[in-house]
Design a protein that fits this description.
Length: 322
């Protein structure tokens, strides 16, 4: 039986959905699931990790761990591993996960598979599947001679059941050795958006060059407002300077896997598809009935976005009583 350490991410006092997924998956594969939580809210987050299957929580509540710092976090992970001797470490393939865990894996001489879309654990053996060449094919990876097997899972790939709020947890504070930092974080300047990050969103409405001009993103904003969605974009409109790169979906942007992805005026180039074909339901709106996006869509609407989006927004308003 594997001993599984789960690196838990949180925001505004809430355990992220991606971490809930990992904990629930870990719980269904092991009776020894340890949540590793950083930041001054770590102890209250620990209670939430219990609801999703953690049996023990290791916290690092030190003020220095409130914001991501790769040197500090790597040190803490090294010491968490030394303490737990976990055989599997699961984390999200988030921006933090992708930056942190290659360093941690090198430090721990561990094996690592990043960007996995499915995972199987049988006893001590772990097999992680990940897409290659922008999703043209998939590869299954197993580990060899790795005492610690690290897998970074894409968010929204694993199911989340209702939390069991009757569960409690043993919390242990990890006292991490102080290290001399080579890079100091001086300030975090918040972006303007308070919206949920694309990679976490349950519904994404994305716009492409078919919108004709930046101002027409207002149609997407209105629909997104009604649906509680986050707005994304194709690279064509990011390159044109209509929207920031943080909104780009695709091979050189973000990978999303929401329950619903609405692609508006996007042709469906392979590099865009690479970032969104993991979505559960895909709806495309395009004037060209032969646009490649329709081949990947669950539902297709052939028509002009300027006709269709206001109607959809009104219908959703009515249906959702907004
Ligand atoms: C190395 C590399 C990496 C890349 N990475 C990415 C990436 O991460 N993400 C990404 O998106 N792209 C990426 N690209 C670019 C990609 O190849 C495409 O050029 C890009 O996705 C096209 O964007 P688009 O679909 O918005 O524009 P277009 O391909 O121009 O499509 C516009 C669509 O809008 C439709 N349309 C026109 N008028 C209307 C209307 N009134 N109403 C509704 N529909 C309308 C058209 O029929 C057309 O299908 C990458 C390319 C390379 C080479």
């Amino acid at each position: 039986m594997s001993k599984i350490l789960v690196f838990c991410e949180h925001h505004n006092g809430q355990l992220k959905r991606s971490s809930q997924e990992l904990l629930q998956f870990a719980k269904s594969n092991s009776s020894d699931v340890i949540a590793l939580i950083f930041g001054k809210e770590a102890k209250s987050i620990a209670a939430q990790t219990a609801y999703h299957g953690a049996t023990t929580a290791l916290t690092v509540s030190d003020e220095a761990y409130v914001s991501y710092n790769p040197e500090l976090y790597t040190q803490a992970i090294q010491e968490a591993y030394a303490k737990t001797q976990a055989t599997v470490l699961l984390a999200s393939a988030s921006a933090t996960g992708k930056d942190l865990f290659p360093k941690a894996a090198a430090r721990l001489n561990a094996g690592i598979v990043s960007d996995a879309t499915s995972l199987e654990i049988n006893g001590a053996s772990v097999v992680a599947k990940k897409p290659l060449f922008a999703g043209k094919c998939f590869a299954n990876h197993a580990f060899s001679n790795a005492s610690l097997q690290i897998v970074l899972m894409r968010p929204n790939q694993l199911p989340v059941a209702a939390p069991d709020t009757s569960k409690t947890i043993t919390i242990e504070e990890l006292s991490v050795t102080k290290i001399d930092l080579k890079v100091l974080l001086k300030e975090i300047v918040k972006g303007t958006s308070e919206k949920l990050d694309l990679t976490e969103a349950n519904i994404v409405v994305s716009g492409g060059r078919g919108l004709k001009e930046a101002a027409n993103f207002k149609y997407l904003d209105e629909l997104a407002q009604v649906l509680g969605a986050t707005v994304g974009a194709s690279r064509a409109v990011v390159d044109a300077g209509w929207v920031p790169h943080s909104m780009q979906v695709g091979q050189t942007g973000k990978t999303v896997a929401p329950t619903l992805y609405i692609a508006v005026g996007i042709s469906g180039a392979i590099q865009h598809l690479a970032g969104m074909t993991g979505s559960k339901v895909i709806v495309a709106i395009n004037t060209d009935a032969n646009a490649p996006i329709f081949q990947k869509s669950t539902y297709g609407i052939v028509g002009d976005f300027a006709d269709i989006l206001p109607k959809l927004t009104e219908e959703f308003k009515r249906a959702l009583h907004k």
